[in-house]
Fold these 4 entries.
Entry 1:
Amino acid sequence: MNVKQALKNAFIGLKQKNIPSANLDAEVLLLKALNKNKDKSWLYINTNYELNKNKEKLFNNFISQRKKHKPVAYIINRKEFYGYDFYVDENVLIPRPETELIVDEVLEILENKSNKLSFTRFKRRRTNVCSPLFETPSEKPASFTLIDIGTGSGCIIISILNELTKNKKDKIIKSVFANDISKEAIKITKINAKKYNLEKKIKFINGDLEKALDKKIFSTVNNFDQVIITANLPYIKSSDYKTLQPNVKNYEPATALKGGEYGLDHIEKLIDLISELLRRRTNACSPSFCCKKIFIILEANPGQMNKITAILNKKFTNANIKIIKDLNGKKRIISATI
């Protein structure tokens, strides 16, 4: 069987199973089976290239998995996010393009707080957000502590650190934490961190939200530090989970998707915990937690934004809140400065 025949057979089989991206999926899976680190143009140039029996068997196995709606990212154990490659399997969510907005927002915060750093990539994309957060460029830049909660594959925190390193601005980061309740997810985060030589930069925390915001983490945070908390927590309502597409419901980890009856169980708990930290800071400004400012960047369902805004306003009377829309014009990210 040659490349042309393999793609034709795969396309027909995938179409029969109502796979919407049959052509593209067949091409990606064939390149993986052939172990070709090339783009799909190679397939069109080499249509008569013959697959040996082992490659043909492997490709057919890939197609069989895809026919069952298993996501391509899990079949090839790879997903691109923010221009970087990440290892993924069924223990972590597949990174989505809209989640890249969290990275954009963090980089913009760091730019505005650190004498106008130059991050050209997100400047091109940020056309639908409010004005930059307040603070004059002349102010002495503070160091930052980054905490990524529900880190999964680590795509958010690793992309942020990669961008900072690329721009030679990683020195402004004092501490970095990546948290997930899943031990398997933490293992995958470590794999991806090692790939980009960040395994010694990041402190990995396996545990729930309370552990992610444990006071020990803030013991080194001082009056001049600023804390950035990112979180892509489960936000799917219980009723909506039942109607998810099979490629999501049957393969992606339910614990990373289900957010309770209204989809806000984890998000609301996170806000409560941060509120408690701030209450202790306000009452005593004790050495256990005393920082200059906190930024909270969350991803959620567009229909949840008003409710989350109300929760934030109730917990933090001085919160500066903005909503960021995704490329489809839907409200996707909420950013709060405390």
Note: The first helix runs from residue 3 to 16.
Entry 2:
Amino acid sequence: MKILVVNCGSSSIKYRVFEADDGLKPIAWGIIERIGEEVSYFRYRSIKGELSYSAVIRDHEQGFEKILEVLMDEDKGVIRSVDEIRGVGHRVVHGGEEIWEPTIIDERVEEVIEKYSALAPLHNPSNLKGIRISRKFFPKAVHIAVFDTAFHRTLPEEAYLYPIPYEYYEKYRIRRYGFHGISHRYVAYMASRIIGEPLEDLRMITCHLGAGASITAIKGGKSVETSMGLTPLEGLMMATRSGDIDPSIIYFLMMWEKLSIDEVYDILNNRSGLLGVSGVGKDLREIRRASEEGNRRASLAIKMFVHRVKKYIGAYAAIMGGLDALVFTAGIGERAPWIRSMILKGLEFLGILIDEERNEHPEKYGWMISSDESRVRVLVIPTNEELAIAEEVLKRVAQHHL
């Protein structure tokens, strides 16, 4: 049996195929980028070979055609028929309070995903598009939606409610939902295995630092606080998102700049964060180069990013009454030892002592970057959302065929 995991973005499709006969073994990986642009990029790798090329891929449906074509390729493919794909897992960002668990997709599930598209406009519409196309391409497979919000269903009321009139929660379900839950749950589980202690016995903070960034406090194996809120806009400073700001800024920008609410929303989601402060770009590597060349705004953007991550770490340690483990993951968290070093500097009062050699080469030291004397274990763990989704799909496919 084979399982396909799909993560559909506005101009991209990431996918991975797992052999599921004896555990879950990845057998093919790929991504299509810049769908609908002048030139699209296709990359594919499998246990049988690799393929990459540039082409014009006009839309997601054509993208799925290309994926199926290579998956069934005589030389490099891993399936002979679409019917070999028994389960398809879809990462979906927002399900509101209506769907928390991984769920077999039907018309109602599609309606819920569409309903919450306004709260995740960068993700839910693309997720839904991928679901509808792949259900057409793999009609005999069981399609499962795995929600990014699911891990945060354990947030207590005092953490998920906002201090606005309670009637707005009752009417519109305005509350903190949290995101990146698939990643936070996976790396927390892996960290407990590396440490050798049950997740239920640990107070842990997981830092998912990428273009989108969030931090979660995990106590007793459950999410008890998280930085993203009603939408993925709240929380940390990100690549293009502002994160936390004074809400009055929206009012004054509209008044002073004569902007519409949609224009301000676009600014906060797409023109703020690292990009907005640095003026250089949204990639931290590019911003670092500019900083080293003396660009003051680039240096400021880095300092602001570090400051806000530290602030959340300190707050979440206070909420949990202490800290046993701290985990870094995602693009920046995994591959930028210099930013990890900046974040951890000054946190010795929490019992955090970093070993800089381990920090530079975490894979050589079992992913542990704290010193032996550190009271808090600090780890770098590569996230694997595709594997986490595949595990959920495997469970539901087995239940479906009982």
Note: Residues 196-385 form a domain with the Nucleotidyltransferase; domain 5 fold (CATH 3.30.420.40).
Entry 3:
Amino acid sequence: MSTYLYDAEVFRQLRNPKYYRSIPNPLYPQTATQISDLLAQLHTHSYISSKQRSYLEPDLHTTKSRYFYLLPKIHKPRSSWPHPLCPAGRPIVSDVNTESSRMCEYIDYYLQPLSILHPSYIKGTYHFVNKIRNTPIDASWLLITADVESLYTNMDLERILACVHEAFLENPDPSRPSGAILRLLALTLYNNDFEFDGQFFLQICGVAMGRKYAPATANLYLKKFDKAAMHDFHIHPLLYSRFLDDIFGVWPGTRAQLLEYQTFLNSLIQSSFNAAGFPPYTLGFFY
């Protein structure tokens, strides 16, 4: 790929004010200080040991800024490419050896077990096969799949925190420092600064692909959507399952009713779900 076209696609995305904002200086040194202060509080209240605090403590002598890169979506139709010779790119913010990379591991330690408790959860291919094994299927039913477009990029930051807080309330644990985890999560979400070509940017919407806790937050974010998709339409899909942003199910109705179901889900996202903080995009169904 031409370096010129790759850079042009990067800046096409970074200039979108909905998702990114240019900043004059990096934020990670100040973020490291705030993380250290919160770690001191966790240690004082015996939530972490001295050894854990040492592991999680940011070291500004060795830490570095995050950097931005794209994975070109070469599988997309050429008609959708922003340039005839360059496909759109999947945005990634690398979070290796940064001031918060280990802290994101700590947050994910608490979020990941809660994120798999929803009834639509799929761990992987074999889990999905086991869910559908020996299930009687009528010849008239349809296997359906759907993709939630650009899930990570469109997740509202306040809504992420609200979903995590709700999961903590639903699953109380006196040994978990819920308040501190929420503060650390907010700190890493709102201070997700990164570098590209010597310039610094701040992500202001969505979770960066690269954050350790990104899959867990995505699962928690879509719990209410799953509930509505499973129960709020007059025909209920069978074996409704979701792996992150990919939905699988068996439809017991007709194709015409499936199109009505698609319209129903899209209307939920575009109206009441948006008011609740759900992302402003639609589902694409393939059956």
Note: The first strand starts at residue 20 and ends at 23.
Entry 4:
Amino acid sequence: MSTAVDSISHEHGDYAGSKIGMWLFLLTEIVLFGGLFLLYSVFRSSNAVAFHNAATELNAGIGALNTLILLTSSLAMALAVSAVQKGEVRAATVSLSVTIVLGLVFLVSKYAEWSEKIHHGIYPNSPELGLRDYGEGLFYSLYYVMTGLHGLHVLGGIVALIVMLVLLRRGAVGRDDFAKIENTGLYWHLVDLIWIFLFPLFYLIT
């Protein structure tokens, strides 16, 4: 009896520890992007007209589509975690796969958007931006840095999701051990939440 109680206590401690560790990691991510958001606000306040002119060149429709893609992926991720907790491996596999595909679609969309801007000579220190107001160069520098960093986080999330999918298929993640996929889900939701802030900053506030 004592052994069983100790085992339950140990498992609970491991779960609580992994959750605390994950929240601490997410906190560092919030601080990182929070600093970038603050930097954006400072530069925007002193270059309002230039930021307005630069923002009008971004496609708000594509930004909205990317937002819809990530919101849908968050829903699929939540369904995957719920399915794992219920022991529904097939449903969890489908939901995880959908999340991965949507993440890849988002990255392809951002790649296409970046490629179009670069093709038109709009990138940091480009001759085209050199002919414009200094503030427009600042806007696009922040745009590439912040959306690029976010894209790397999406890529990292996709890699983590693929690992979770493999572990799920091998039975290493399941109803009795779902902390890993739950933590991965928290990370994915944070990545999506960051984009919800990036979208209006660059595409809507003109």
Note: Helices lie at 2-46, 48-55, 60-86, 89-119, 127-130, 134-170, 179-204.
